Amino acid sequence: MKKSNTNAKDGAERTRRSIINLLKQNGAMDANQLASELGVTAMAVRQHLYDLQEQRLVTFSEEPRSMGRPAKMWALTSEANRLFPDGYADLTVSLIESMKEAFGEEGLEKLIEIRNRKQVLDYQSKAPLSLPLQEKLLALAKSRTDEGYMAEIIANEDGSFYFVEKHCPICEAARACSGLCNKELEMFQAVLGAGLTITRDEHILAGHNRCVYRIVPQADSV
User: Which CDD domains match (predicted)?
Assistant: First the structure.
């Protein structure tokens, strides 16, 4: 009997983890969407969602529907970030504070600049400038995913692309040192080359569920 209870508990934990992963990957979803992905009933999913809500890992907002009551759209809270790779957040934040104390803001900025140059060289070795834009983006997305960013690209009909990162493994470090995020656009521009306009449309540190970069080839470079 004890073994049966243990198996049931393990199964429930796996289902809740699958729900968390789906919300991380896809953003807000309702219970029916989650149930369809998981192959279980919407009622079972709702029970897991309420359990996760009690743990402060998920929350919901109501979305109007053309018929019936509004749907509850579930999304992860900031508390859920601890369930994903965080790039040794506590140690990194501590080191940043120590570097500020030892070298000042100017010294820290120089260190970030050095890190950015090394990142660019590393990414360029995996996504050479000679590649077509989409191939460069795919190679860059793979490298960033390997680092924990859960990156993907979305090709748009107008020839532009979205570069989407669903997790930030250095989020706490970036909160402590805004320069890390400020250098991202510069890094993407250097890796992907000239002839592109790159903007950040969504930003995890601004409260969004993901970082989204819009990459638009300039007319004279197409």
Answer: HTH_ARSR (cd00090)
